[in-house]
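Exercise 7.
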Amino acid sequence: MGRFFLTFGFPLHLNGYHYAKEGIAYVIQNKCIDCNKILFAYIAEEYDTEMMNVERCIRTFIDKYWIMLKDAGLFSIRPSSREFILTCAEYINFGFTSVSAYDILNV
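Solution. The predicted structure, written as tokens, is:
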């Protein structure tokens, strides 16, 4: 999974990167697509921090690298933290598919 982030040139020193990476791994391992509170609670527990801090750091990471994400073709609009994690997990599992994370979120 680290290679996924390196492919897109994401920096490894940001907390949001580590939180997102942990969240993506959790979604892939647990096949969990509708676990917003569970997911952020799990990450917060793993890193001994607050759930709000986890979501804020991931959001900051997304905001900082939004242009890079858009240019990579992962997103057409700015994603929420949850949408970002689900889309990245989908990309890692299946590559680009006709079903987007937005479709999964609306199920």
